[in-house]
Every structure is written in C-alpha cells, then in structure tokens.
UniProtKB/TrEMBL annotation:
Catalytic reaction equation(s): Cd(2+)(in) + ATP + H2O = Cd(2+)(out) + ADP + phosphate + H(+)
UniProt KW Transmembrane helix keyword: yes
GO cellular component, one term: plasma membrane
GO MF terms, alphabetically ordered: ATP binding; ATP hydrolysis activity; metal ion binding; P-type cadmium transporter activity
Protein name: Cd(2+)-exporting ATPase
Domain HMA: 6-69, 75-138
Pfam families: E1-E2_ATPase, HMA, Hydrolase
Source organism of this protein record: Cytobacillus kochii
Transmembrane regions: 158-176, 183-201, 221-244, 385-404, 416-441, 725-745, 751-770
Length: 777
C-alpha cells in the first residue's frame, strides 16, 4: 500500500464456504479503482485499498447475496437518545436527521435508544429534528450520560397528564351540576384537551398537511372531529388515555432496555493503578495496556487483564452467567465487571476500556437489538400501509351510510372517529420490539450473546443441532482416564510422581495430561532427580532416575524391547478400541504402569443432548476430524443421534448443507475458529467460549460466553417463547381491532370503547412481552 492511500474495512455477512470467500475476493479486486483486496474468511471481514462504492462491493458478492457493512465510517458519531415512545417515532426521527444539512447518513437503533450519524451536526440540530417527540440527545461517550441523570419524581414527570386528568374530572362534575353544554363544562374539557394533547395536535396537524399518516395523525383527526360534533367529554378522555398509552409504551421499552443499562453499570469507572511505584486512583479511560491494576478482596475488577500476583475466587456471573465462582491464579485471565471475592490480586492490563469483553458484549447486544427479525420487518411493512387503510375505512364509514343508506351524519361521523381511535396501531407496532429487546437482554445476562433478532427467530425453527467434538462435547484437553499399575514395588502415587517428573521435560502434547493428574493429587517431585533425558522420535522418551533407565512411550516401543506380556497387550487393545491413547511406563526388563489418555467428555454434554431431544429436535449429530473409534466412543457417551468422523473442514461444510436438505433448519455448535465454514453455512452458528475470545464473538451468530453447553437448551427455549409471544401479540392486537371494528355494523362502537380497546391492547401486549425478561434456565 503506497503512502497516503487509505484502507477501508468492511464486515461481511452471508459467507457459506472458503471457496466463495475466495471468489468474492477476486471479484472485488476486479472492481475499477480497487488496488488491493483481502478477505478474512474466519473473521468475515474485507479490507480494500483504493476506491469502491458499497453497491459495487455488494454486486461483487451478489452470487452469494452477501451483505456488506462498513466497519469504520467517516466522521461517524454515536448518540444516546431519550424519549422515544414508539418505533414509528424512531423512524420519523431518523428521516428528519437524514434531511439535516451536513448529514450524509443516519441510523436509529430503537431497541438500544441510539443514533449513529455520518457527517457534521450539532446536538441542538438533532434535538430540533426530534422536537416533535421532545427527544433529548447526548453523545455516547459523554461522562454523564442521559441515563445517569437524577431520577425525576412521579408528579413532575407526569404533571401534564395529571393536570389534564384533573380538568377532565372537573368537567364531569360541572356536567352533573350544570349540564353537558354549559360553557364551564366545555371549558374544563377544552383545557384538558389543550394541556394533555397540545403536542399531539401540533404533530398531527403538521402530518395532516404533509399527508404523513401515522398514529398521531389518526388521533388528531379523531380529536378535531369529536370537538366539531360536540363530544367534548369523550374527546378529553381520548386525549388523556392516548397520553397514558404513550407513557406505557415508553415505560415498557425503558424496562426492556434496563438489561443493557445494568450491563453498563457492571464495570467500575475507576481503578487503583501502580505506576512508577506509586499507587493512584484513575479513570478507566486513562488506563493503558501494561499498567498494573490492584484489586482488593470484595472489589469489582475494572479492566480485562492477566493476574501477575495473587490467587482468588472470581465471580464471573456478569459475563458468563456462571453462578459458581472460579478459582484463578497467576497467568489466568480476568474480565472487567467480575467480582474478586476473597484474595488480593495484581493484574496486568491487556485491553483498553473500549476493547474489554464487557464493552464488546454491550456493543454487540445493542447492535443486536437494532437488527430486525423477519417478524418485526413484516410488522413495519404492514403498519406502513395499515394506517392509510384505516383512514380510508373511516372516511367510507362517515359518508356512505348518510349518502346511500339514509343514515344520520352525526351518528356515522362519530362511528368513523371511533374507528380512527381503535385503528391506532400502537399495540401492533410495539408488539415485536419490546419482545426482542427483552429476550436479547435476558439472554446476555445469562451468558448467551445473541447477535440479532433474525438469529433469535432462526433459533426457534432449529430441527437439527450439529456439534463439533473437541472443545464442544468434550473438554478439549487430554486427561488420564485409566492408570493401571503392573508392579507392586511402589504405590501408584509414587510411580505417578516419577512419570510426571520425566514428562515435565517432554514437549509431547499428552505429557500435560500426566502432569495435570499429578498436580491434582498434590504430588511433588522436588526430591526426584532426572538425568540423561532423551527423546525417542516417534516412540517416546527415556531418562534415568537414581541411575536406573526408564522409558515412557507407545506400546510399540515396549514391543520392540520385547517386554510386552500378552495380558497387558490385550488390555491395551481393549482401551485402544474405546478410542483411547495408551502410554506405557517401564524399563528394558518389565512394564510398570500403563495409562490410557483421552479427550474427556464434558459432564454436562449428555444432559444437554437429552434436553435437546426433549425440546423436539429431529436429530443431534457430531461432526469431527477425529478417528472413528474415538468419535464413536464420545458420541455414544453424549447420546447424539449420529456420528460423522474423520472429516476435513470442507467435508463438515458439505455435511451441514446435506443436513439442511434432509431436516430443514440446522444449528452448528463449535469453537468459532476451526469450524468457521460450517458455522457460517448453518442457519445459526453457535460458538463456545465467547468470554475473552474475539474470534468467537466475530464469527458466530450466537456465543455461549462461559464455554457452558448447558446454556444452549435455555437459548432455544427462550427463542421459542419469544416467537410464541410475538405471534400471540400480533394475533391479539389484530383480533381486538377487528372485533371493535365489527361493532360499527350495529353502531355500538363508541370513543370510550375504542380508546379502552386500544390502550388495553397496548398494555397487555407490553406486559406480555416483558415476561421474556423473567425467563430462567
């Protein structure tokens, strides 16, 4: 790359295989103006040197319908927004911001209450664009955010609604005393309408002039029409109840967003740092990589880092959802927002505050809440046409009966106004976003990171779950499963001490299993002196202890030494048939110990697979590159339906595609790196161990943060319940409106019934969606 040329980075969604990624890279390189292009298939990223438009890049990936998202946008700033009452208002605010001079592009994330803007714009201009809803805007990185301000008292917060309600009460008292048409009665109702609905009327009239039909336009027409025909009391109640409905929507979304607010408050804002031998309390923004952070017992850890001094129990529930504290010591990784329970720690900082695991979780969850599920996208499209249709129906109801059926103009205009009120799409529009925000936030608190509503919806349709073996169904590290002593000259622990003292000099991967077993038993080897250590390539190692030569190696080594009895050989054969690797310890004259080593299955794996079958999965399969014997053993222990062994990455990919044809939706569970092609091809890619693992957070659609497979059934259960609630909300909202509209036929529909139906549906839908915040494992 020549000096002065900028590199542009993009995130790519939709890769199904490495071959397709290579084809995409070649297509991008052929775009005029592109001097260099590189695709990182594992991380789903594209880097370009030169000039290329977003549309040109997406055309280069059209063969696979790739979605291209700029990773770094010029002059982009992110703001937090307070005051959204509904998704329609958020969309209108986005349009207004895009129309501001100096703004190239803008995007509102309604679920996270965030605004991203490309270009130059002031906060005053942004708040002016949101003046129709009295929105408040602040930069995301401001030290005092919108959500950290002093709480407002109930009376102050809802003063206008309360005062308007009092005037309604006075109006009805005047009605009882002086009659419906008395000037005092009408004045009380008029004051109530003005105080409680002035903002509504301002916006509605502007919308009406622009022919912009939304729920506020419907309500404004209903209010004006009701006033014209003299229904002052009912109009005042309609205005008050609509204001209450909007406040309910705001409250519901705020409660749903609290899951993210709670994540933001997890990590401390300051930490004790030692620099040049001096301890000082500094803001986390000022902490640098390499600084030493001091953490006392009972304190929360402020930054990601590695322990350089001390041992303690760390409660990681805020990151991984694990309820049991984890013992950690020197060289172990710790995360911001976790709790140091009982030991003093010194931690070397490894990440800046914006790169910590908790920061990435917050960012990804907020982005996920902005990603619309197919169900929400359908509702948004439906609502766009629904409101004008309701307006048309109301007009027809108002004019057809009086003109053609000899109906009363006053009666049918009243019915039409009631139709406008009951047709308000509040409940319909709010039915999906509250559910998605609640579910994604709840999942994050339980250590399951779901990266978008689309993946939550896809997960609910999964019929087949495919597992990688190593590190997913198994622990991913070798352990000694059998320790057989064949010479009673010493106790088994003494033999183990000798073997471990020799293996500590070995570089063989299986040596760690023996050393780990000795450490678990607390066996020390300080008094054992090992000499003349030598590696026997392809066979094992040899060394001397107290002048006697010992060998550690595979069975073939001792067969060559001609010290392999038939009985021991038969036992080794049985263990090998179970997929285990056997290591032999002995001398040139006799075998002393045999050890079987295997990648041990996780204790939870069988229970998880059983739970998945109980949830109605058609099948569970295991895909592995390991040999058939080892794979069959693990598959049998885990209880999966089928086992496919000795697979290359491209063969795993082909199998996932075959499973999709056979049984529909497939989820692939793997480590997020080695299984990237299969993870990308599956409808839902689920990565194990997202905590601290950038690759897992980047490549997967869902990450199990605590490397905890037991979270998978919970995630599927949550996704299914979410979709049931969303479908129930939509059905309920439409049914209520249909029933209310049918009341028009016998002229039974009143403004009272209309507004109660609308506010009742909104309240029930919101409360039903908020139940997702309480779903437990």
């Amino acid at each position: 790359m020549s000096e002065g040329e900028a590199k542009q980075n993009y995130r790519i969604e939709g890769f199904s295989c490495a071959h397709c990624a290579g084809k995409f890279e070649k297509n991008v390189q052929n775009i005029p103006g592109v001097k260099e292009a590189h695709v990182n298939f594992g991380a789903s990223k594209l880097s370009i040197v030169g000039n290329a438009s977003l549309s040109d890049i997406e055309k280069a990936g059209a063969f696979e319908k790739l979605k291209v998202i700029p990773e770094q946008k010029i002059n982009e700033k992110t703001y937090r927004v307070e005051g959204f009452s509904c998704a329609n208002c958020a969309a209108k605010f986005e349009r207004n911001v895009k129309n501001l001079s100096g703004v190239q592009d803008a995007h509102v994330n309604f679920g996270a209450s965030k605004l991203s803007v490309q270009g130059e714009v002031s906060i005053a201009e942004l708040e002016q664009a949101g003046a129709f809803e009295n929105l408040k805007v602040a930069e995301e990185n401001a030290h005092v955010g919108l959500n950290e301000k002093e709480p407002t008292s109930f009376i102050k917060k809802y003063s206008r609604v309360l005062i308007a309600s009092l005037f309604v009460l006075f109006g009805y008292l005047s009605w009882i005393g002086f009659g419906e048409s008395h000037y005092l009665t009408v004045s009380m109702f008029l004051f109530s309408i003005i105080i409680g609905g002035l903002d509504l009327l301002k916006i509605g009239v502007k919308n009406l002039i622009k022919l912009d039909f939304d729920m506020k336009t419907l309500m404004t027409v209903a209010v004006i029409g009701g006033a014209i025909i003299g229904e002052w009391g009912e109009v005042a109640v309609v205005v008050i109840l609509f204001a209450i409905s909007e406040e309910l929507e705001r409250y519901s979304m705020e409660k749903a967003r609290q899951s993210i607010r709670s994540l933001m408050r997890i990590a401390p804002k300051k930490a004790i740092i030692r620099r040049s031998g001096i301890e000082q309390v500094v803001s986390v923004e000022e902490i640098l990589v390499g600084d030493i952070m001091l953490v006392k017992p009972g304190q929360k850890i402020a930054m990601d880092g590695m322990i350089v001094k001390g041992i303690s129990s760390i409660n990681q529930a805020s990151i991984t959802g694990e309820s049991i504290p984890v013992e950690k010591g020197i060289d172990d990784e710790v995360f911001a927002g976790t709790l140091n329970q009982d030991g003093y720690l010194e931690v070397k900082i490894t990440k800046l505050v914006g790169d910590t695991t908790i920061a990435k979780i917050i960012h990804l969850v907020e982005e996920a809440q902005g990603e619309k599920a197919p169900a929400q996208a359908f509702i948004d499209r439906f609502a766009r046409y629904y409101t004008p249709v309701i307006m048309l129906i109301a007009v027809l109801i108002a004019i057809i009966p009086p003109l053609f059926l000899d109906g009363s103009w006053e009666s049918w205009v009243y019915q039409a106004l009631a139709v406008l009120v009951v047709g308000c799409p509040c409940a319909l529009v709010i039915s999906t976003p509250i559910a998605l925000v609640s579910a994604i936030g709840n999942a994050a608190r339980h250590g399951v990171l779901i990266k978008g509503g689309i993946y939550l919806e896809e997960l609910s349709h999964i019929q087949t779950v495919a597992f990688d073996k190593t590190g997913t169904l198994t622990r991913g590290e070798p352990v000694v499963t059998d320790f057989n002593v064949h010479d009673d000259e010493k106790e088994s622990d003494e033999w183990l001490r000798m073997i471990a003292s020799i293996e500590k000099l070995s570089q063989h991967p299986l040596a760690s299993a023996v050393i780990h077993l000795a450490d678990e038993k607390g066996l020390k080897d300080k008094d054992i002196e090992v000499t003349d250590f030598a590696s026997l390539t392809g066979k094992g190692v040899q060394a001397k202890i107290n002048g006697e030569k010992y060998y550690i190696g595979n069975p073939q080594l001792f067969t060559q030494l001609q010290v392999m009895p038939d009985t021991i050989g038969e036992m080794i054969g049985r263990q090998q048939s179970e997929g285990k690797t056997v290591i032999v310890f002995g001398t040139a004259k006799r075998i002393l110990v045999t050890m079987a080593i295997a990648d041990e299955i996780r204790q939870i794996s069988k229970a998880v697979v059983e739970k998945l079958h109980q949830l109605g999965m058609k099948q569970t399969v295991m895909l592995t590159g390991d040999h058939h014997k080892a794979a069959s053993r693990i598959g049998e222990l885990a209880g999966v339906s089928k086992v496919y062994a000795e697979l290359l990455p491209e063969e795993k990919l082909a199998l996932v595609k075959r499973l999709q044809k056979e049984s529909g939706h497939v989820a692939m569970v793997g480590d997020g790196v080695n299984d990237a092609p299969a993870l990308a091809s599956a409808q839902v890619g689920i990565a194990m161990g997202g905590a601290g693992t950038d690759a897992a957070l980047e490549t997967a659609d869902i990450a199990l943060m605590g490397d905890d497979l037991s979270k998978l059934p919970f995630a599927i259960k949550l996704s299914r319940k979410t979709m049931r609630i969303i479908k129930g909300n939509i059905t309920f909202s439409l049914t209520i409106k249909l029933i209310a509209l049918l009341l028009v036929v016998p002229s039974w529909l009143t403004l009272w019934i209309a507004i109660v139906a609308d506010i009742g549906a909104t309240l029930i839908v919101a409360l039903n969606s908020m139940r997702l915040m309480k779903v437990k494992e």
